[in-house]
Specification:
Number of strands of chain A: 5
Structural class of chain A: alpha+beta
Distance between the termini of chain B: 43 Å
Number of domains of chain B: 1
Oligomer: heterodimer
CATH architecture of chain B: 3-Layer(aba) Sandwich
Helix content of chain A: 25-40%
Order of helices and strands of chain B: EEEHHEHEHEHHHEHEHH
Radius of gyration of chain B: 17 Å
CATH topology of chain B: Rossmann fold
CATH class of chain B: Alpha Beta
Radius of gyration of chain A: 14 Å
Order of helices and strands of chain A: HHEEEEHHEHHH
CATH topology of chain A: Nonspecific Lipid-transfer Protein, Chain A
Structural class of chain B: alpha/beta
């Protein structure tokens, strides 16, 4: 897998993140029931990621108000997401729990759905270390 | 060449606070007892690297026990524990460790624990300084609120996976993947105890304003904290150490909240420093 050194474009990230997820051995081995929709709020851009049985079915880019429904949201500044996109993140940018407890990340909405999918979601967010973050 | 590990496992019966426990412990080595407490919701395999370390076990008798309700240590033998909610108190946790030390007839042990084991290490130094030569609180602090959460035991989510993946970010990305996954695996096994353990960690444990009472001339204190620990940060560890007269603090780089389990070789380098500091301090105090 190619490791990027600067922020990818939105279009290329949507493609690389989808491919990374859909070919990830861990998610494909354990994602049979990994089905949910969530908002990634990266400040400069927002994305609604729709996952069906471990496969990313769609990533909606900068959706309009109430245009694309989602169950929970992961929000943070562009700076924080940029740090998540490094191959080896600095402390407190190495996961959604760390950044929520110690930085500006917010977990909002139906957090139960997040918890129900926590194993695969944790891996999915870590894919940013190889794709980079598009902000 | 034999593939049998030198580590042995035994059970010992411990009576404390009216409860009877059959406690499982692993041990290896000879010398001063080094008693090791695993983290909340886990078990003694977190100390697997230390238990098989020939250099450490040449000088120390390493004993890693399973706290009751964890690993192979059952809940109390003499109560209907299933009719009560498990909430570990500071009083019972500290009394249990002293009773275990008595049951094993240990003399001048060093106590080392991580996370809630680090917090109880501080409690032991505060309550029973005459019973321990030294304590090594790993990832411990005077106060650690915020982790007593219903998510660990929520019936609508997979509690095993929530415990395993909810603690995943406590480890450093530099730690070997296989060791992080072992640690994750231990966490999937302890979900019924994890939340009750965290009652002690985040609610009942509070030494704010009391750290100055710890007598390090009787019981040396060396704190160690990993830089990727988002729960008990290096700042928390340094603050805690600064308020204990005579205590030492070591910040561990490129490691997290489960240092002995997620990356033993890195942890060992810092542990050797801590043990050297303790030897120096106890030699001066003797």
């Amino acid at each position: 897998m190619t490791v990027v050194t600067r922020a990818p474009s939105v279009e290329s990230w949507v493609q690389s993140f989808t491919e990374a997820n859909n070919h990830d051995p861990e998610i494909q081995a354990h994602g049979k029931y990994f089905t949910c929709s969530y908002l990634l709020d990266m400040e400069a851009h927002t994305f609604v990621v729709r996952v069906v049985s471990g496969t990313i079915a769609q990533i909606s880019v900068d959706p309009g108000p109430i245009e694309v429904p989602y169950q929970f949201a992961i929000r943070a500044s562009a700076h924080t997401w940029g740090e998540f996109g490094k191959p080896v993140p600095d402390p407190m940018y190495h996961g959604i729990w760390a950044a929520t407890f110690q930085r500006d990340m917010k977990l909002e909405g139906d957090v139960l759905v997040l918890m129900q999918n926590l194993r695969c979601l944790t891996r999915q967010i870590e894919l940013l270390r190889s794709t980079g973050a598009p902000v | 060449m034999s593939k049998i590990s030198p580590v042995t496992g035994r059970y010992v019966t411990v009576d404390v606070d009216g409860l009877e426990y059959k406690v499982f412990y692993l041990e290896n080595g000879q010398g001063q007892p080094l008693v090791c407490q695993h983290t909340a919701g886990a078990h003694n395999h977190q100390w697997r690297g230390l238990l098989e370390d020939p250099e450490i076990t040449a000088k120390y008798r390493v004993i890693a026990y399973d706290l009751p309700r964890h690993g192979k240590s059952d809940p109390p033998e003499n109560t209907e524990w299933w009719t009560e909610e498990y909430q570990l108190s500071a009083d019972h946790f500290a009394n249990f460790i002293v009773a275990l030390v008595d049951a094993l007839e240990l003399v001048d042990p060093i106590f080392m624990g991580s996370s809630f084991g680090g917090n109880i290490a501080l409690q032991l130094a505060h309550r029973f300084p005459e019973r321990f030569d030294a304590v090594i609180p790993v990832e411990g602090a005077d106060h650690s609120p915020g982790f007593y959460l219903d998510w660990w035991q929520h019936p609508h989510a997979n509690a095993a996976q929530v415990c395993g993946s909810g603690t995943w970010d406590l480890m450093a990305p530099q730690s070997p993947e296989a060791d992080r996954w072992k640690t994750w695996f231990y966490y999937t096994q302890g979900s019924e105890a994890f939340k009750g353990d965290l009652y002690f960690y985040s609610v009942d444990h509070d030494l704010r304003g009391k750290l100055g009472e710890i007598q390090t001339d009787k019981c040396a204190v060396v704190l160690m904290t990993g830089e990727y620990d988002y729960l008990t940060t290096p700042e928390d560890g340094a603050r805690t150490a600064s308020q204990i007269p005579g205590a030492e603090f070591i910040e561990m780089k490129a490691i997290g909240h489960f240092p002995m389990s997620e990356n033993y070789p890195v942890f060992k380098g810092y542990l050797v420093q801590a043990l050297d500091l303790i030897r120096t301090k106890t030699a001066v105090g003797a």
